[in-house]
Amino acid sequence: MCGIVGLHLREPSLHPRLGELLTAMLGQVVERGPDSAGVAVYGDPRLSPPGRSTVSLLDATPDEVRAALPDAVAIAADATTVVHAAAPPEALVAAIAAALPHATVIGSGQDVAVLKGTGHPDALADAFGLAGVQGWQGVGHTRMATESAVTPAGAHPFSVGPDQCLVHNGSFANHATIRRELRARGVRFDSENDSEVGARFVAHELAAGTDLDKALRLLCERFDGFYTLLVATGDSFAVVRDAIACKPALVAETPQWVAMASEYRALDVLPGIEDARIFEPEPEEVYVWKR
Description:
Helix content is 26%, strand content 31%. The relative contact order is 0.18. A seven-stranded antiparallel beta sheet has the order 7-2-8-1-13-12-14. A four-stranded antiparallel beta sheet has the order 4-5-3-6, with helices on one face. The model has no long low-confidence stretch (mean pLDDT 94). It has a domain at 3-44 and 134-290: Aminohydrolase, N-terminal nucleophile (Ntn) domain (Glutamine Phosphoribosylpyrophosphate, subunit 1, domain 1). It has helices spanning 18-27, 62-68, 89-99, 121-128, 175-184, 194-207, 212-222, 264-267; strands spanning 3-9, 36-42, 53-58, 73-77, 80-85, 104-109, 112-118, 137-143, 165-172, 225-232, 236-241, 250-253, 257-261, 277-279, 287-290. It is α+β, with helices and mostly antiparallel strands and 291 residues long. Helix 5 crosses helix 6 and helix 6 (194-207) packs across helix 7 (212-222). The chain contains eight helices and 15 strands.
């Protein structure tokens, strides 16, 4: 019974309000997942400055990062440390892995910053400074753990490809089988969370050249269980549900924005909601919006 919210802003004048709106949306679904929370924010000039790569870490403090990588800037946000530097994302990830092998990378790219923590989602939003964040897209998740321990590493979003993230409400019944298959192909995992398997599957397909629509269709073919997924990339925002569609999901769309949430009350806080087209996504139909 996790809670999902996501907001894709089409209107640039709303970009300064991204964090304010995402915080309000997240606050409406906290009862669905009171043990931990996470967000992915695209385009905030402080968390992911233009022209620099951004990496989000667990298990490494800003002081440790600065000591190991003097040219990097490190910012603390609860359990997460956000690092940015003038290097390609893969080079920054490699440098962090070499200098801080105990750290866990939970997000990387040019546009995205991922923030995770345990505790009440409202308190975590305050700790993240979420209300003050800017940008063009954001995804949030509140967790009620069913498949792995309550830790920051087990919280969503799972961001395992460049500028990609996935949040999930539900459970994958055959995640152990698919995890073994992906490990045999060289894919590494950071947690026992079934949702990470879905994120790794999608990232593996995207890295092979599959587009997002097809990657999510392949996931529907391969994964058993009950799920609603919201997936974001550097230029896309996508929603898909399982064949039974028993996990709640609503989408609202206006010329200014597209939003998705587990409950209507999380959409009701958005400007112009009274004029939005609101619908429930159809089972196994992939919905993709492009920037």
